[in-house]
Amino acid sequence: MRRRGPRAAPRKKRSAGVSLVELLVAVLVSGVGVLGVAGLMALSLQGNRAALLGTEAALLVADMMERIRVNAAGGGAARLYDGLALGDPPPPPPDCGAVECTAEQIATYDQAIWKCRLGRFAQSPLCIGLAEAAGLGIRGATPEGAGLREGDGAIDVDPATRRVRIRVQWRDRGQLHALAVQSRI
Fold first, then answer.
1. Are 136 and 129 in contact (CB under 8 A)?
2. How does pLDDT run along the chain (185 residues), one tens digit per residue?
3. Contact 177/167 with Cβ under 8 angstroms?
4. CA-CA distance, 9 to 185, in Å (whole number)?
5. How far apart are CA 62 and CA 76, in angstroms?
6. What's the rounded Cα separation, in Å, for the pair 45 and 60?
7. Among 6, 29, 67, 180, which is least packed by CB within 10 angstroms?
8. What is the model's pTM?
9. Whether the Cβ atoms of residue 38 and residue 155 lie closer than 8 Å to each other
10. Largest CA distance in the chain
């Protein structure tokens, strides 16, 4: 008889489960992935907020440009909007809802409404009174009140060329943003 070599030792059965190390690595990889997605979502929300504020600024500029165009249609009233500077508070407006206003009074009323809607002066007694009296949408986008955070604006009119330049600036996350539009009336 032929002898077959030494008998091989029986092999140990391999465990069919998942080891603790494998489980920890899987949890770590999944956690890193979830954190990455959360970071992208936060970045996306910041971008959406910046776009919203930029759109709000553009709408406020377009609103004032249309107010100037409508009032200037009567002839030469665009010059009445000149000289409204950054930092200027809203001018006290007449009550154009109760009486018929002149082009100059309409310009003052338009400037007051616009300055209030920009946001910096939204909590002033004048703006609060305007909002209550006219039912205006002055409350809005920021927790502090209306419009843009620290939003302010300026209007410059060149009567010779009938060019109107409207500037709006606001703060978002500590940075100053600005938008300027120039048009011919």
1. no
2. 565 656 666 666 666 667 888 888 989 999 999 999 888 888 888 788 888 888 889 999 999 999 888 887 656 677 888 888 898 888 888 887 777 888 888 888 889 889 988 888 888 888 888 877 766 555 443 444 457 888 889 999 888 888 889 999 998 888 898 899 998 88
3. no
4. 99
5. 19
6. 23
7. 6
8. 0.72
9. no
10. 127
Determine the residue type at 12: K
**Distance (Å) of CA 117 to CA 7, 57, 128, 153:** 93, 10, 11, 10
Q: Are 123 and 144 in contact (CB under 8 A)?
A: yes
CA angle 128, 134, 140 (to 5 degrees): 55
Q: Do the Cβ atoms of 166 and 181 come closer than 8 Å?
A: yes
Closest residue by Cα to residue 156 from 78, 101, 45, 42: 78
Decide: 169 and 160 in contact? Cβ < 8 Å: no
Q: Are 185 and 162 in contact (CB under 8 A)?
A: yes
Residue 102: C-alpha distances to residues 71, 135, 181 (Å): 10, 22, 26
Q: Considering only CA atoms, which of 139, 77, 150, 141 is closest in space to residue 109?
A: 77
Tokens of 1: 């008889």
